[in-house]
Amino acid sequence: MNKTLILMRHGEAGTAVRDFDRPLTEQGAEKCRIQGALLTEQGVQLSTLVTSPALRAFSSALAVAQAMHYPETQIMTDEALYNAPADALFNAIQGFEDSWHTVLLIAHNPGISVLARSFNSTISADLDVGDFCVLSFPVFHWQDIRVC
């Protein structure tokens, strides 16, 4: 069975004393809700949603989950995703449960965009805030995914 990976950059964030505590702006939250609705319209059904625990990323996950009718209590956070470089994100993906077939991963730039480009050479620019890309891999195990 194929594995589907949706890479998403968190929504637009405001300011805070600590980077980790930056909240979503209202525009950022709205874009995440719209993106969640778009994924639902495309027939996407998540096995799981994994996010950085930073406020802006977790709030993005909540907005997407709400729009997709995905249970908020099932959102998984992974501290290793906070401002992670592409190789750390890739390592996290390779550790996903094989029973998960469609995963939405919400993280930060530059890592999330570098990772997206490493999977798909047609992606030439950074993901904008709140944007996502959908990638499909003809593998049974997440650990079998390879970059270009």
N-to-C order of helices and strands: EHEHEHEHE
Output the CATH class name. Answer: Alpha Beta
Binned, the helix content reads 25-40%
> DSSP helix count?
4
Q: Nearest-angstrom radius of gyration?
A: 14 Å
Uncertain parts:
none
What is the typical, i.e. mean, pLDDT? 97
Strand order of the largest sheet: 3-2-4-1-5
Number of strands: 5
- Overall, the morphology is globular
The CA-CA distance between the termini, in Å, is 20 Å
DSSP strand (E) fraction? 15-25%
CATH superfamily: Phosphoglycerate mutase-like
Give the total of domains: 1
What oligomeric state do the depicted chains represent? single chain
Largest pleated sheet: 5 strands, mixed
Q: Using the coordinates shown, work out and report the CATH topology.
A: Rossmann fold
Content-based structural category: alpha/beta
